[in-house]
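Format notes (please read before filing issues)

Several people have asked whether sequences and structure tokens are stored in separate files. They are not. Every record keeps both together, in the order shown below: the sequence lines, then the token lines. Line labels are part of the format and must not be stripped during preprocessing.
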Amino acid sequence: MVFKAKSTTPAKDGVFRAQQQQQTAICRARVTGGLQIVGVSLFICLLFWRSWSLQEPLSFNLSTNVRSSSKRGWSWEGIKPSEHLIWSKCYDNLECSRLVVPLDWLKPSDGRKVVLAIVRKNATDRTNYLGPIFVNPGGPGGSGVEWVIDGGKALQVAAGENHDIISWDPRGVGATTPSGHCWSNPQEEQIWEMGKLGLVDSHPDMLYDIYARVSSLNAQCERNMGELTKYAGTTSVARDMLAISEGLGLEKIRYWGQSYGTVLGGTFAATFPDKVERMVLDGNVNLDEWYNGTSIHFTDSTDSVMLAFFDFCYAAGPAKCAFYAPSPAAIQARLDSLYARLRKHPIMVLPDFVNNTIEFSIPRPEIITYSDVNYMVIYALYQPRLFWPKEAQILSELDKGNGVPFLEYAIQRGHRQPPFSCSCDLKSQDSSNCPSTYPLDAIGNADTDRLVHCSEAPRDPIYHSLASLSSYLSNLKSKSPLSYSTMFENRVSCAGWKSRNTWRFEGPWHVNTAHPILLIGNTFDNITPLTSAVHNAGYFANSSVLVQNSYGHCSLGTPSRCTMEARRRYFQTGETPRNGTVCQPEVVPFGDEMDEMSVEDKLDKAMLDLVDLAKGF
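Then the structure lines:
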């Protein structure tokens, strides 16, 4: 099936430039090594690649090896690392600090250090000041600095403007040094990705190729990350958070984390239960499965969310859902038919060249496979309200053999690599596309997912042998037949990983925290099911589970005044809602959107801003 891209609108600035990088010499040196196949690891939370964070081979030097992109107009290297919190103005209306902490908290005097990049948005209401709230966007690999830059105001209004909002880039991420990356430059990563293969069910015996490919990649990651692989675990990050709070003179902390941030929060609460003043955990990861490396129950609701796409599309009708069919079962059959065709006949998209100038935003031939489309469909489950209408349009066009809308969307959302380039504009003030010894500031890092997740597991996890992975895959398929092949990537991404954290939390989990914890879960969360919130709540005495009756990952992606007010009341007064309280959303997938222009209430405006914030993480 061939489709030729027509000239419509010129490519938007930045769509392809975002990752067109570095010198031809580097490119030639790497390309001659040959291309291989990669198994792509899914990110546990909605962390988007906004830019690249670069590094030289790992160093534990305390030099200020950070710089900022020109769009920020500010540089981290202007702040001297210190063992005390020294705040400097940054990012227009925020404050930043660089705190020196031990690399190994079990041997703090051995001289090896980590420098944490910390950001704070000060409270605007000082009449009833309640102190700071520590926030974490998830990941692992999510940048707390970027989270506050982009959403600090909305987070503050949501919790109460009498709070500071504080976050930091965890170990291996963003402006925190040393950085943890699998590759020394973007070209190496892009060249590796050019040889990737599809999902485990795309062709027979794919498991063997995936296992070998991922094992090779992880060997590269461990070699490039060096010692950091032993010291970037959740327990060390939780101890870093305690160090920041101690630097502020706090006896207890207030914390708000989502997705992987619930692992961080739960680990902190179990390790330092007397230090919990308030804690909101939204989109809960099963703590047992995280630390035991089992990962079965994380798909408890995945297929339910997928089935809901068929139901909501049918209920919306053809005017709102472009992939409509006469029944939910017919819509599912239509998707299955598309998958079957794509397995045998991928869609080819050819660029339209006019006078050797690429007019359309697809400058090279592209092939759209079953795996490509399956990734998009499963990814859209994270935020159905946001993604499903667009997904339905793309699926409808794919059904006609038109792959252009898919490619545009995939590149813009970061699901597909932009055209590879070895060019480098050395005259550019923002030389992120050129060789650098410094990481960019405030950028998330997907490699940190491996660094943390894989090093967190026990000594003999299920992904250490092909036999155990094959058995795991069979169990996952029987449990989640609609989504198993994509969700399998979460576990296989750790194949062959050998490093283990020197400090790994071993329990006990059952604790009495200084104040009850509030856990929030969607009725149908595609990757952190409500069952995980209920399970984790059993570990923390007097905790409360708030249920938001919505679909997708974490409550922020679907606006709910009820959830918003309950969370704010908890931060303001300490009151937890009755365990099992159910909050209804304001909108449903394919339904009418809230009109932001009509929203006058500050809390409602913050609620919508948080929905926008969730789009980028």
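For reference, the curators noted about this record: The longest helix spans residues 206-225. Residues 1-617 form a domain with the Rossmann fold fold (CATH 3.40.50.1820).
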